[in-house]
Amino acid sequence: MGAFRRRVAPATSTCLSTAIANPRDGITRFPEEIVNYRQNVVLEALRQVQVFLDGNASIVGSAIAKARQNLDGVVSTFTSHAAAQETGGMHSVGETARQRTLRATLRKDYMAPIAEVAKQKLRDVPEFHALVMPASNSSTAQLAAHAAAMADAAKAHAQVLTDAGLPDDLVAGMLSLADDLSKSLDDRKQHSSKKSGATAGLAAEEGRGRSMLKLINALILPKLRNNDALLREWKAAKKVPKKPGVVATVVSQVAAAVAPPPAVSPAPAT
Predict the structure, then answer these.
(1) Model pTM above 0.70
(2) What is the largest distance, in Å, between two alpha-carbon atoms of the chain?
(3) Cβ–Cβ < 8 Å for 238, 48
(4) Which of 63, 126, 174, 228 is the most buried (most CB within 10 A)?
(5) Rounded CA separation 105/114 (Å)
(6) Are 253 and 21 in contact (CB under 8 A)?
(7) Residue ranges of the domains in the chain?
């Protein structure tokens, strides 16, 4: 028998799409779900610490009163940022869906009929360029602006449009819809900005939360050293679990995807 080659399965798009290193700039970026998980477990640990401190106030004593006050502040701010992030994301997605509906209605029910009449009856007017359909890949802002320009041009030829059978209020309706589309675009930007601000706030509170856990741990450990059961309870309360296997799996998948196939020695001749 002659030499043979081991077949190596091609790298899948999944392992490349989840890579944590950007090949363009070399900067490591974690998937969003890992970041969210990390912040959630920190917040949960902070809340568990609150429960522990409330249940063992007589043992812990008043020495950590200031630290406890700061802990409560971190939890409150953390929770507010999390709610703002979720709300901003939901509203942003909602406005995106609304814009798809508004775009389709504006193009099909308002702009297309006017453009068709203009193509047949208004080719020679100076405003004809404003009465044609915009490109299908126009941005939302471009579409709204084109609709406003089309409405302005159409007003000068309202009689031609109505004589062709278009409704008298078509131009006014198109303007109203274009305004709704522009407002939706502004609203989405506002919600996205709020989400970005909340996300930055969460990152900051995560760091503060981890610092608080370390500080409180240093303050109460001396009070728990002679109580094994309570010490174990405290360690469980303050523990911030890591998401098992995610980063390691991603790294191994990427490494496997880019590694050269293993060398295989030829089989001995028979």
Answers:
(1) no
(2) 95
(3) yes
(4) 174
(5) 13
(6) no
(7) 30-248
